[in-house]
Design a protein that fits this description.
about 25% helix, alpha/beta, globular, 7-stranded mixed sheet, acyltransferase activity, about 180 residues, 4 helices, transferase
Length: about 180
């Protein structure tokens, strides 16, 4: 029933890790994955190549998010990754076109992704290999980030584009408004 080859033997512990993680709460799951204690990582979130993930303090990873860190992934402190968001750091498109899409193919391209501190990446968004998302960025839900995003802006769409910039005074004013209404 079980294959006894190098790839199967390498993947089996990862599969079991994901299975066990489903029975833990957010804090236990973060500890289990070796993430910062302040991380909240929800059910069904998946981390590919967790050894290549650098995660800041006080991050939230939503249900069903897939973080592909195989090409290197850095996420800054106080950043939230929305439900069912996909972050890719590799692509096999060329391996597919050359009919060489097999484990270890030298045509699988890997590029690091960096998401800054204080970011909110809305659910169902996709970040493509090689992009850098600046600090204090809002990525609206259902966006596809295919290019670098500067600091302190809101992006949306497919492909995502900048819709507005926000300075520190604007953020402080919004925080005061929300606190006053609550």
């Amino acid at each position: 029933m079980f294959s006894d080859d190098e790839r199967s033997n390498r993947l089996r512990p990862l599969i079991l890790t994901e299975l066990v993680a489903q029975y833990l709460n957010d804090t236990e799951r973060a500890r289990f994955y070796g993430l910062p204690e302040t991380t909240r990582i929800r059910e069904r979130a998946k981390i590919i190549s967790p050894d290549r993930l650098v995660l800041g303090e006080h991050c939230w990873i939503g249900e069903g998010a897939v973080l592909d860190a195989s090409g290197g992934l850095t996420i800054g402190e106080h950043t939230s990754i929305g439900v069912n968001t996909l972050v890719f750091t590799h692509s096999s498109w060329l391996a597919n076109m050359m009919l060489e899409n097999h484990p270890g193919s030298d045509l699988i391209e890997r590029k690091p992704v960096r998401i800054g501190k204080g970011c909110f990446v809305g659910g169902l968004s996709v970040l493509l290999p090689g992009v850098t998302v600046g600090d204090f960025v809002v990525v609206q839900p259902n966006s596809v980030v295919a290019r670098d995003v500067p600091d302190r802006c809101l992006v949306a769409g497919n492909p995502a584009r900048v819709f507005s910039h926000h300075d520190e005074d604007h953020i402080r004013a919004e925080a005061a408004r929300v606190r006053a209404s609550g």
